[in-house]
Write a structure and sequence with these properties.
This protein has 195 residues and is mainly alpha-helical. The protein has one domain. It contains 9 helices and 2 strands. The chain has a two-stranded antiparallel sheet with strand order 1-2. The longest helix has 18 residues. The two termini are 28 Å apart.
Length: 195
C-alpha cells in the first residue's frame, strides 16, 4: 500500500465529522499534499514526503498514547478521530509552499554539481501551527485541545517564548504528545538527504 493509500484509508476510517469529505477532497484534488515534501532540505525532503511524515507522526502518536507508563501517569484518553486529525493534519500548512529548485554541492573530489532541492515560498505567511489550524478549521470544527495540539506541535523548537509553549503543554497534554510524536518521526524515523 502506498503512503497516499494508507493516509486516505486512515482518514476515511477515523475522521467522520462534518466537513471531512470536503477536506479530503481538498487534499486530494486541490492541493499538492500528496506530492509535496515535508521540508526543503531536512526530513522527508522529497516528493511525497509530507504525506509520509504525516503518517509517521500518526503512528508515533498512537504508540505514545498507548504506552503503559503514559497511561499510568496521565490516563490520557483521546478518540481515534482526534488522534488522526492532529497527527495527519498538523503540517497541512505546508501545502503549496515548496517549489522544485536546484542547489550546488561539492562532491568528495571537490567538484561542484547541481542537485535537485526545494525552495520554500509560503503564499500565505500565517505562521506554522496556526496556519494548519486555520486551514483545517475551514473544513471541520476542531476541539480546543485539537487546535492547541496542532498549533503547538513544533514544541520548543519553534520561535515562541518557551514559557508560552510550556503553558500550552501543561494545559493541553495532547499538544505535548503531538510535539513528541513529531520530533520522534522527524529525528529518528526520517533521514536527511545525504546530498
Amino acid at each position: 500500500m502506498s503512503f497516499r493509500e494508507e493516509f486516505i484509508e486512515i482518514f476515511k476510517d477515523k475522521i467522520t465529522r462534518p466537513g471531512a469529505d470536503a477536506l479530503l477532497n481538498y487534499l486530494e484534488n486541490k492541493s499538492d499534499f500528496f506530492t509535496a515534501p515535508a521540508s526543503a532540505r531536512y526530513h522527508c525532503a522529497y516528493e511525497g514526503g509530507l504525506c509520509e511524515h504525516s503518517l509517521n507522526v500518526y503512528h508515533c502518536l498512537v504508540d505514545y498514547l498507548q504506552r503503559e507508563r503514559v497511561q499510568e501517569l496521565y490516563g490520557l484518553e483521546y478518540s481515534e478521530e482526534s488522534v488522526a486529525i492532529v497527527a495527519l493534519l498538523h503540517d497541512v500548512c505546508k501545502v503549496g509552499c515548496y517549489k522544485p529548485s536546484t542547489r550546488n554541492v561539492k562532491d568528495a573530489n571537490g567538484t561542484w554539481h547541481s542537485v535537485p532541492t526545494y525552495q520554500f515560498d509560503d503564499p500565505l505567511p500565517y505562521g506554522h501551527g496556526e496556519k494548519s489550524v486555520y486551514i483545517v478549521n475551514g473544513f471541520i470544527r476542531l476541539s480546543r485541545e485539537e487546535a492547541m495540539a496542532i498549533r503547538w506541535h513544533m514544541g520548543f523548537s519553534g520561535t515562541e517564548d518557551n514559557r508560552t509553549v510550556g503553558q500550552a503543554f501543561q494545559k493541553y497534554p495532547l499538544a505535548f504528545a503531538l510535539a513528541t510524536a513529531d520530533m520522534e518521526a522527524s529525528y529518528f524515523l526520517e533521514e536527511e538527504p545525504t546530498v
